[in-house]
Each structure stands twice: as structure tokens, then as C-alpha cells.
Amino acid sequence: MGLIKNARHPFYEHCHSALNEIRQQGRYRTFTPLARLAERFPLYEEEVAAVPEGREVVVWSTNDYLGMGVVPEVQEAAIAAIREHGAGAGGTRNIAGTSPLHTQLEAELASLHGKEAGLLFVSGYVSNQASLQTILTSMPGWICFSDRMNHASMIAGIKGARGSQTVIFEHNDLADLEAKLAEAPAEAPKLIAFESVYSMDGDMADIAGICALARKYNAITYLDEVHAVGLYGEEGGGVSQRDGVADQVDIIEGTLAKGFGVHGGYITASAEIVDFLRSTASGFIFTTALPPAVVGAALTSVRKVRAEGWRREKMFERVNTFRQRLRAAGIPFTMTPSHIVPVPIGDAETCKRISRRLLTEYGQYATPINYPTVAKGTERLRLTPGPFHTDEMMDEMVRALSVLLREEGVIPGRSAAERQTEKAA
Ligand SMILES: Cc1ncc(COP(=O)(O)O)c(C=O)c1O
């Protein structure tokens, strides 16, 4: 079978023109093939034609914030689970996909967040989408109060809940939230959906404040702790654990793919809320369960993260050191209360070019964050130093940023063209 040529359906033309438009706007996304070197994390290997053995690259943009994905015990747990139970789960949780590992991991997560029960989903995205859509279609008249900056997965669930009403409140603005709650009919079932750490700006929600409003206006709370689990709180239970307010949140959602370094998503809540979602959420029921290797690795990872605080502590020390070095070199960054270090660039093309040049000229990788992930004009590099970024790696990255941000006109200094002219003169 060959390619379908001269396809007459308008969708073919639509794809063509939409892609052209994305390219013209400088938003076309290309993958950077980087193979992680498990034993040398955060070093990765980039395939380059000129270097047969590959080129080493320092990655500054991984969401495996603590490097849990390369911890030998975590890797061994995955291998042991494959040997014991095979490569795939073999079915949905109701058919043949529940192993003792799944049950143990759900109990572990419930205990981490101080909740009665937990439920695994195939990803953090699916846990948000499936849970919110199911809750918001469960009774007539739901009103969902959603933070303006909520993640696409929450928005997908909220938008997919036909028949419910959505009220967007200004980002982290409790006065606006309260005004909107006060306007809503007292008897309507209400839910407030928000995140603890907003991953692109690195700012945090006032969880206690939002929970107090929820109590005042009889709303339930749904908190996404995706960028916080593993990193904040005594045992890595997230910002709600750190602030001692986890018991005030009705549903805490998280991922196993970032701070825990593996894969999968989950919610924790009261036994009956979890049982309700287990029994009714389409995105839980009708998909093959997470494979044993993933669940086994995640279980080991969560247990280690709970028991061993040193990776968290080291990560924050590294983040602070990196910020100090950026400051000393005059490189602008947004000061955040979290582990996320955004370096503002302000233009999609420049952002992509700086990221590209960091990689090709300096062997440093930082993802360019462009529209639609962030608003136009706020394009940035998003850096997440981790426990294993060394002082030398930081020096090299700071030096590279210092040169490139000046050459690309992001900060005052001589551009590449000016340097050429000076050299020629
Ligand atoms: C705030 C937030 N929630 C949910 C998700 C989805 O999590 P996962 O990557 O496990 O699907 C992400 C992913 O980046 C996220 O940033």
C-alpha cells in the first residue's frame, strides 16, 4: 500500500495548512533525541552524525526531579516485577490487570497523603481528566471553580463534563475566587480545582486559604500535586503535606512520573470517593492497567522517597546555588518559591534558537517553553536543577547562558554580529 496521494478529504488540506501556520508562528515542535545515561544522570547522549560514539549533554529540563528513575533499587524492582509477572498487565484492572503490586502501591499512596484510599491511573493526565469529568457529571448542577492556570489535563476533564458549569477564577486570586463562590447558588454542588505548584511559573497556591473558602461555601477541593509529590513535605507528600493541610483537601491527585521518576498517575481521597471513581470513571475502567514493571518500580521509588529525605534536601541546595550563580552573572530569572527556575526570553523564535545553540555549541539542554504552553510574549527556558547537577555543570551552563543571552539580545551586551564587526575592524 502506498501513500494516499491527492486525497480529496478536506482534513488532508487542513493538516497541511495548520502545520504551515504553526511553523510560521515559530511554534513547530521538534523532538530532541537524547538518550539518558542512567549511571551518569543528568548526563544524556545525543546522536550526532559527526561523533560516532554520541555526544554527552547535560540536561536541565527533566521532570525526574530527584533522579529516582535511575536509582538501582528502582530499576531492579522493575526487572524483578517483569520476571515475576511478565511484561504487560494483561487487561484492565477489572479483567486481569490487578496484581498485589497495584494494591500495595495504592495503599502506599493513600498513606503518603493521609487518605483512606488511592486509585492508580495510566498517567497523571488521565487521572485528572477521568476523575474530574466523572465527578462533574455525577450529579446535576455541578459548578467547577477552576484556576485560570490549571493544566491541560484538568481542563480536559472539566470541559468534558457536559452539563456542568465552569467558573474560571484568576490565578491564585482568593478574592476573585471568593467573589465567584459567593455569586453561585448556595445549593449547587461546587468543586474547586487547583494545583499546588504551577509548573511553568513555579508559583504555589495558598492551599489552606482555598480550603477555608471551600468550607465557607460548601465546596469540595481537588488538588493537583503533580509537580510537588516527592519534593515537598516531610515524606515527599507534596505542598499539602509540607503545610500540614492535606487533611483539608478532599482529593489529592499526583503523578508517579516526575518526583517519583517512573510513570502513572493517581488520586487519593476518602474510601467512598475512590470507590466511586473506581466503579464509574471510564478512563479508569476501560484501559489496560499499568504494567507490573512500572508499578513495582514506582512502589520502590515511593517507599524510598518517603524514607530518604536527602535527595529533596540536595535538590533545594542545588537550586539555591544555581540561582546565586545566575544572579552573580547578571542572568535574569524569575524568583519562585519552588524548585523551578524560569529564564524569561519573550519570543518563540529566539527561545528556540537559544535552546538549540545551548545544545549544539555548549552541550547543555534546556527546553524552550513557547505558546500555547505559556502566553505569547512570556516564552522562556524552564530549568530544574536536581541533586546531581555539579558545581562544574552549573559554571558551564551559566557561562553558556551569559554568552547566548547577550548575543541573542535578551540582555544588554554585544550581539554576535557586533562581535564579528569588531573582530573585522
Ligand atoms: C500540572 C500537571 N498535571 C498533570 C500532568 C500530567 O501528568 P503525567 O505526565 O503523569 O501524565 C502534568 C504533566 O506535565 C502537569 O504538569
UniProtKB/TrEMBL annotation:
It catalyses: succinyl-CoA + glycine + H(+) = 5-aminolevulinate + CO2 + CoA. It is an enzyme of class 2 (transferase). Keywords: Acyltransferase, Heme biosynthesis, Pyridoxal phosphate, Transferase. Its EC number is 2.3.1.37. One of its GO terms (molecular function) is pyridoxal phosphate binding. Coiled coil: none annotated. GO terms for biological process: protoporphyrinogen IX biosynthetic process. Pathway: Porphyrin-containing compound metabolism; protoporphyrin-IX biosynthesis; 5-aminolevulinate from glycine: step 1/1. CDD domains: KBL_like. Pfam families: Aminotran_1_2 (PF00155). Its cofactor is pyridoxal 5'-phosphate. Residues 56-401 form the Aminotransferase class I/classII large domain. InterPro entries: 4pyrrol_synth_NH2levulA_synth, Aminotrans_II_pyridoxalP_BS, Aminotransferase_I/II_large, AON_synthase_class-II, PyrdxlP-dep_Trfase, PyrdxlP-dep_Trfase_major, PyrdxlP-dep_Trfase_small. Belongs to the class-II pyridoxal-phosphate-dependent aminotransferase family. Homodimer. NCBIfam families: 5aminolev_synth (TIGR01821). PANTHER family: 2-AMINO-3-KETOBUTYRATE COENZYME A LIGASE, MITOCHONDRIAL (PTHR13693:SF102), CLASS II AMINOTRANSFERASE/8-AMINO-7-OXONONANOATE SYNTHASE (PTHR13693). This is 5-aminolevulinate synthase.
